[in-house]
Structures are given as C-alpha cells and as structure tokens.
Amino acid sequence: MNILILGGTGVISSQISQQLMEAGHQVTIFNRGSKKLPQAERYEWLIGSRSDTAAFQALMAERSFDTVIDMISFTAQDARMTVDTFRGRTGQFIFCSTGAAYKRPFRTTPVQEDAEVLFDDPAFPYAYEKALMEQYLQQVIQAEGLAITIIRPSLTYGVGGANLGILRQNYNIVHRIRNGLPLLMFGDGKLPWSFTFAPDLAKAFVGAVGNERTFGQAYHVTSEENRVWDDLYLEFGRVLGVEPKIVHIPTELLMKADASLFAHLHYEKSYAGLFDNSKIKRDVPSFEVSISLNEGLRMMLDWYERDGHTVDEGKMQLEDRFAAVHSEWVRQMEAFGV
C-alpha cells in the first residue's frame, strides 16, 4: 500500500515507519527535514512545515495515498487541515490521539474505550485539545462516513524519547541511581500503571492500515504488564544492579511547586493507568504486546550509553532540592512526638 506519514521520525512514528517498510508498504514521510531514519533511501521524503497551510496543501495537491497517518495533529484545527487536504484522495485516515484525552476519574477499570467520555478541562491544554480534536473527527465520521481510525497511546517510551521519569529527567535517572542519589516519585508510588514501549505501540498502527474493521473506531493501545509507579525506578535499578533510593512527595505539593512541570501527574497520572486491549485485539488480531518493563528499560539504557548522553544539570539541581525538602520534612515529622 502507498502510505503517507505526517511526522514519521518521532519516538512512535519512527517505529511505525520502519515496521510499515518491513511489511512491504511504500512509505512517504512528511516532516521538516531535521531528522532522518536508518536506511533513509528506502523512503520518499517530503519536506515542509504543517504550520504553513498553503504550502502544505500545494505540496500535496497532486498526491493521493491509500492511507494517511497523522502523528502531528494536536488540535481540532490541525485535524481539520489534514482532512481537508486529503478528503477524496485517501482511502483511510489514522490519527494519533492520547490516553490523556479520557476524562478522569475513569468510569471503568481496566479502561474500556466505549464506556469512557473525553477530557473537558482546559486547565490541561494537551488533553483538552486532543479531546476537541477527537470530537471533530467523530463529527466528520458521522456526517461524511470518512474512514477514520483513532489510536490513543498512553505513556509510551522509546529510543529518542525525552519523557522518561517523573521530572522527565531521562538519563539523569541512570546517573542518580549509579551515584546513590535519591529519585523523586509522586504520591506513594503504589498507583497501578502500564508502561508501554514504542515498538509495541507501532504494531497497532500498522495493523490498522487498510483494515476496514478499524474504520470509524477509536482504540487505546498499552502494555499489558501491570506495574506500579515505583517499579519504573526499581526496575531500572535491577537493570543497573543498584537499588535506587526513592523519595515520595504528594502530587498536590508538587503542583504548588511547579504547576506546569507537574500538570501531567495531577490531571492524568494520579489515576490508575490500566487499559483493556480487547478492542484493538478484536479488530487487529495480529496485535500483541511483547516488551516487558525490564526489556524496555534495557533498550533505553543501551540508547543512552550508545549515544553518550549527559546529565541535565537543571533537572539534577531541581531533584536535589526536592530531595532536601523531603529529608527536612521527614526529620521534622520524626521529631514531632518527641
């Protein structure tokens, strides 16, 4: 099949691009040209900016594709531009949304797509705008019957990603564990969660391509290994052979310290992140999750060490400050009854 990916070189979309190519599809990637993939010559590359609507539509004016996969729509306006550009010139749209677009608290646990409603609080713009995007797409599906598939990743890690850890401190986690420095965790660290890795998630996108059972449907796709948040650091410690030191601070206090940095914890991750994959498995029978948390973190460590990552000094200092505040709080509480 002839497939266009808008994005195509990000943490998730690079895996989609590679798996589609390996499956024998003809893959065209549209991006700004700042990133390439291994074996770049196997892909067709279209260079430009989605923010320049006129130039984008002119570039695509004579093109048609069996499937258009949009990984870079974050608002209803973004999605509308994609639909308007390719209406009548593609057999299917696949849009990447997010598990954050579900309204909290959930109605079901594990979460089932068709029992939930969408996020409605503009205080967390990322989730709110993605929810508005989905609402627009559902309106188009109902009004025009377009073949649109929506896939909602939950928290997903992978090579090239900058979102690992509570502070999204990434390689700092390795550095702090190896050097006996404490790591910050929100709440008590016991909230259930499913940590997903990009190669597994990409299988769902690939399985949805040209799959009529997915037309007009929305799916979340996550790991099926039930963990708790502390496991993220504890498992990294097992990979490194060093037991990590974890300090726990209530989410509401973290929000008071920096609402922008910790909004994702407050609005999205303060609720159990367990999702039922039955729907995607029903419509994409080949889909399976195979990467465990341990295997995924080994993949991340290999990437950090292969590419020579360095610590983020700003995040190091911030985490040290939180740890110091926690230590003083513990000291005061221990002396409270004396």
UniProtKB/TrEMBL annotation:
NAD-dependent epimerase/dehydratase domain: from which residue to which, for each copy?
3-213
The entry's family comment says: Belongs to the NAD(P)-dependent epimerase/dehydratase family.
Protein name, as recorded: NAD-dependent epimerase/dehydratase family protein
Q: Which organism is it from?
A: Paenibacillus cremeus
